[in-house]
Amino acid sequence: MQFLRDARYTLHVAFHPFDGFWDLKYEERGRLRIALSILLAVTLTMILKRQFSGYVVNFNHPLELNSINELKYIIIPFLLWCVANWSLTTLMDGEGKFREIVIATGYAMMPLILVYVPNMLLSNVITLREASFYYVLETVAYLWFIWLLFIGTMTVHQYTVLKTIWTMLLTLVVIGVMIFLGLLFFSVIQQFVSFVYTIYQELTLRR
Question: Model confidence at 207, in pLDDT bands (50, 70, 90)?
Answer without folding.
Answer: low
